[in-house]
Amino acid sequence: MTTSIGIDVGSGCIKTVLFKTDGDNYEWVARRNDKIRQRDPKELARRAYDEVLEEAGLKESDVQYTATTGDGENIEFSTGHFYSMTTHARGAIYLNPESRSVLDMGALNGRAVKMDEHGKVLTYRMTSQCASGSGQFLENISRYLGIAQNEIGELSKQADNPEDVSSICAVLAETDVINMVSRGISAPNILRGIHDSMAGRLVKLLRVIKANEGVTFLSGGLALDEGLMDSINASMVKMKIPTKAVNHPDSPYAGAIGAAIWGAYRYEKLAEQGSLAIAS
Amino acid sequence: MKCYIGIDLGSTTTKAVVMDEKGEVLGRGITNSRSNYDTASRVAKLEAFISTRLTLFHRQLEGLAGLEGEKIDRLLFNLERHFRLELFLEQLEDLHQTCAENAGDLRYPGQKEKICGVLDVAFARLADKLQGLFGPGVVRKSDFFRDLAGSEYMNIAEETAKEMGMNFDTLINIYDKSIIEVENRPPNADMEGKFLRALTKVLEEETDLSVDPADVMEAIKKVLDLDLEETFVVGTGYGRVRLPFPKEHIRSEILCHGLGAHLMYPKTRTVLDIGGQDTKGIQIDDKGIVVNFQMNDRCAAGCGRYLGYIADEMNLGLHELGPMAMQATKTVRINSTCTVFAGAELRDRLSLGEKREDIMAGLHRAIILRAMSIISRSGGIDDEFTFTGGVAKNEAAVKQLRELVQENYGDVQINIDPDSIYTGALGGAEFARRAVEEA
Amino acid sequence: MNTATKPEAIKDASMLKQKEMIAGNYDALTGAPETGKKIVSTFVPGNLNELISSFGLLNNLPEINAINNGMRKQSGGMIMDAERGGHSEDVCTYVKADIGMMSKGNIAPNGKVMPNPDLLLLSYTGCFTFMKWFELLRKEYNCDTVMLQVPYTGDGVITDNMRDFVVKQLKEEVIPALEKTSGVKFDIDRLRENMARSAKAEDDLVWVLESAKNVRSPIDAYFGGVYYIGPIFTAFRGTQDAIEYYQLLRGEIEQRLKDGLGPITPEGDMGEEKYRLVVEGPPNWTSFREFWKMFYDEGAVVVASTYTKVGGVYDEGFRHDPTNPLESLADYCLGCYTNRNMPSRVDLIEKYMNEYQADGLLINSIKSCNSFSAGQLMMMNEIEKRTGKPGAFVETDLVDPRYFSAANVKNRLESYFQMVDQKRRSSRKTA
Amino acid sequence: MSTAEIIARCEELYEDTTFAASRAWKEAAPGRKVVGFMPVYIPEEIIHAAGMLPLGILGGGDGLEVIHGDAFYQSYICRIPRSTIELGLTGRLDFVDGMLFPSICDVIRNLSGMWKLMKPNVYAKYFDVPQNYRDDIGGEYYQREMQELRHDMEKLSGNKITDEALSNSIAIYNQHRQLVRDVYAMRSDEPWKVPSSEVYLLMRAGQVLPVEEHIVMLTDYMAAAQEEDRPIRDNCRIITCGAFCEQPPLNLIKSIEMAGCYVVDDDYMLVNRWLMEEVPTEGDPIKNLADAFLHHSADSSAKYCDTQEKVGQYLLDSVRKNKAEGVIFAAPSFCDPALLERPLLAAKMSENDVPHISFKYAENSGQMQPIREQAGTFADSLKLWS
Ligand SMILES: Nc1ncnc2c1ncn2[C@@H]1O[C@H](COP(=O)(O)OP(=O)(O)O)[C@@H](O)[C@H]1O
Ligand SMILES: Nc1ncnc2c1ncn2[C@@H]1O[C@H](COP(=O)(O)OP(=O)(O)O)[C@@H](O)[C@H]1O
Ligand code: SF4
Ligand code: SF4
Ligand code: SF4
């Protein structure tokens, strides 16, 4: 049995999970999700690491592999690093075995990954440098509208006449939105408009990677936004993408889970080859 | 009396200037722009009228024997302080009430009472704490209610929530919602009463005035009785198309900035304005007439809003960014000025071990570099050069600008007026005045 | 060079004629499978219509299809289709609209299926993008292809080497390919006849464009101009129809001049002529009307434009010359506006500014088109320096609706007009 | 000399936006002249034979503050012309006596005219190349264009360019090209010994140094690299493609390697590798150069592919030859030639089961995190599953 920890250092939150792996059986033992809020990610990661150990009642030496993902490349106490699309793909399979593609909506970049049933990445695509339609933007707007994050989805679903948010630039779009408020457009219609425009960009990524099997798993924090999920599904129908987007209450943990699982896998493989030294 | 008013409805702030028929500026007012443009211009105008009254008080008091310059200034300073405090507390109370109402929202079933309890404690602490902001000699972080109340609310709410076992995010959400409602409520009009009450307080405090308080009271009352007529209003700025004005009352912000800069510094030939989401380079002639201009294109990289994102990321006030950057010992090179990625860039650099101050200096330089391109596009810099807009308030930006101007254009007279944020509104007011007086 | 939407309100005889011609051409193209006619796909600048039609071949121009789709607000979806297919957001939207149109089943504006071309003829003039576009089309259609490389006149002159090179390619590459596709032997006399007809129509076109030199111009040489150049730039050069169209048009403009009328707009005759502008750069097609309205509402008339020269700069004297057909075709290709170097473009605009008594230069900078846009800001500086007249700069795109921000463009235009106005008033005051 | 010393020298040359080395060459003897050229290819031999220094100009990189250059370009145009204009306007290129703008795309093409407007007293020429590969058509045209260039270079330098001198220059460049090929081959064979960032810096140095000096440098480097022991890493083998004009920042090249990829071929400075076979030194040198161009030159998006089958074949051959496991398409933002061609190349790779990914950059990109993430995921997937 292998004990591994996955740490996903995001731009907004750090997700940490502890897994026990025995062959094809995975036991999810402990978890943490900490908002970074201007704190030092490295310290926070260490704290989370200690806390999941405590929760699992384990010592540091009980852990065989600590894998980072996301922005965690230079976390010193990790055994290895996997890049986030690798981990999200695996995490998605764990949370929903039907998944054959992942849409990860981070605070700044969106990513689409296509994989096989074992979580092997086949192709992927990321949004480019220009941050239009990012999660950050949605966060800013919702603050502007005085709406809580967990409220966005619900409101967006009430839209009856979504407003077109056309601006390419996120900043100019912000003013677009302000203009909408001043024109008396309702919050649901604005939010839905933003969701639609974000979905458009994200689904385009799916189209590029030719997602056409199984279901499309939504990972990351924004996956819990039901309004966005609706927009994505609508957009997928419009763009003739044959899969359906689904989320999972543990969607935010997908990256961390993937890291833990790959970590265990790598550990076993290295142990087989007898080259454990490389792992640390 | 006749008043000419220019209103500059910017993407971040709304400014108003009141001018008399001779072209003298009587008052200036500013507020943050908000979704309700009407309210924004109303508030800015109201602020400008408050400032106008203060100017007029000054003029009136000058006539009183025994009150010389310094004493008048002190008296008026304290008058304004008391006046603002009352205004502020009134709004704070409004905010409290609104929060309490919003606590009844469906999303917090059965929690209203508990939330209200927490709110009561938090607001009491807030009022207590914030009163201090209006103490004599205190420098406030911002001029806007939103910022003043907001930043302190975060701290107090977090601590109160913890103590009283309340979810912090709930308090934030209620606040976010309420502040918008409060902001969009037209302010209470009883300015006169507030001034008089404030005056009474000042007169109680100031015992060495060597002038009869009754005379002061009378002088102030006289000004308050004066009817300030809105003779002609000109609107400009990003939001001008949404202003409730007919077309002849609207001028492009380029023209207004050109003229405004000319009025402040008649020898100006080049104007740089960095606002919230646009950067303009304007060339004007000896009469303040625009001969050429350039603006940033469809990408809002490197505009004032960029600093806003940075400030949010660091949880600082806009006022604090410049001073922090001034502490830098070197300038980190920053290339992407995409506003949205500003935060990411900052984190990236921090994780590489760069110092905050140095990164900040780099960010400021990046903004000014972009502005320099826009100026270059509009035809370069001619003597004299005037820097206007909100970013001109930022000392670090100014420092970078001075360096780059020197490097690229040699010795040029650089003008920066403390009131430069009002340049557009000033130009607008002058257009308003000319429309009537020179028609 | 529009072909689809017309100003609806008033229809002059020339407009009806053009409409008929275009409809006829699309019917011929979509009817090709029945009539057995063969289709050549080629690009607008430097197109060899006289040569193509001398073989009895039909001419299909992908840019024109993109424009049509732009004006009918179809292009947005097509571009997105192409982007989803792996094309970058950064590249020319004509290409993407074209690729997107194929993926939508290649429906021509008349609602019928556009048959695949029998030959791709790349007349590669004035733009590198054409080359890649062509390679993309070749992959798609998998038909015969032939390329005509037209060297760029980097030093502002057409050298003998350039002309010889083009002529040689015509003789040894293009003509054999056309012969093969059509099964018709090259007949130089038919080509000569076509070219003679071209020259005739070109005379009248030039007269029409130059009528804008009148103060109180009877035409708008940009928004109106794109309609006027349609036949000359596209499948009609060298036809009797084109000659007739330009005769009709010329008659109508002569009449407008006599009547002291200004340009015609979608909302009727234009009011007072307040500003005379020269415009550089292609128009935006997706919001063409809206864009135009921003001008005529303010009393701005475009008196000369460079876009109306992409398919040939005729006002400097060039005419298709039947006596030297191949050399003349070469000169035509080499002389198109975007094949001219920057200094020559600046000289041309300067000349327009002076000869047409313009108040200023407006540059509509097109995101898609590096051929036009790279360097326009320097052009503007140069023109301002040389003429002392102010320039303005707006940014839009050809057929990508995402890049037309009406508020932004309007803001700039308004500021610009107010500035010209203010400047004029103050100089009047001092005068 | 150790590789570290050689690379330190290269780095210094790379970071110097004032071209001190080339200036020094010019000042070392009276009457020397320098001719600048932009990507992607120019027959340097003609400049060399006139006794002048060909200077490759590849933009300003991420170290140059671009102010005036930005003033001349809209945001949707790539970076290299702006930084080049900046170099021109800030006097950094004042020592350059002539500028050549090869036929690569509309942006560089128009830049040639802008240069004429900006510097009316400096020789500036747009140098066209044939896209028709028949000897009697494109070949003849190209020979005449080269003769014209030869004539211009004679005038500019004041030196006659004899056939003999030209053949001699061809011989020197043949030697240089062979060395460049050797360095690339060495990296392909033992990538851990020859990191991509070093190869890159080495080739960049060749853009500003006289060819004779660079020949020595390449020879020294290979000898030194052979000697040094560097650890082998568990990296995959990839080819980067699309960066033939505007150059990626050095950090990007490093990031790709750091994320777990050995680069076994690239198209960064094609001018060094454009002519793929030895150019004969007997007979008419101009004709020899033309033949080499028409029949034995590298492929790039700036070139027309005359048949459908050939599209992407060059890249595929390189994949095979270098045993690459995948291709990273890295192109500058807004680069029409690279971005328009990419779907064609990508399709070819897919048809042949070569994994590939793509992203964009700018010469001054600061954020490497998304790059690392994409390259890293690519490396993960090649490593974990192949
Ligand atoms: N219930 C929710 N509904 C909507 N959005 C949410 C929810 N929970 C979290 N989010 C969003 O997800 C973000 C965090 O997502 P995450 O994938 O962890 O981002 P990152 O990895 O970039 O830090 C938060 O900033 C927030 O915007
Ligand atoms: N006190 C201040 N200190 C530093 N920067 C400021 C200050 N006030 C405003 N700014 C900057 O100015 C910008 C707003 O400028 P402003 O000219 O008001 O813009 P607009 O006219 O678009 O509303 C803000 O985004 C901010 O960056
Ligand atoms: S357009 Fe907006 S989001 Fe995009 S780079 Fe510019 S500022 Fe950033
Ligand atoms: S880049 Fe310009 S000239 Fe070239 S195809 Fe596109 S629009 Fe036409
Ligand atoms: S980077 Fe691409 S578009 Fe830019 S100049 Fe080079 S080849 Fe042309």
From TrEMBL, chain C:
GO terms for molecular function: iron-sulfur cluster binding; metal ion binding. Keywords: Iron, Iron-sulfur, Metal-binding. Gene3D superfamilies: 3.40.50.11900. It comes from the Bacteria. The keyword Iron-sulfur applies. Pfam families: HGD-D (PF06050). Belongs to the FldB/FldC dehydratase alpha/beta subunit family. This is Benzoyl-CoA reductase subunit B.
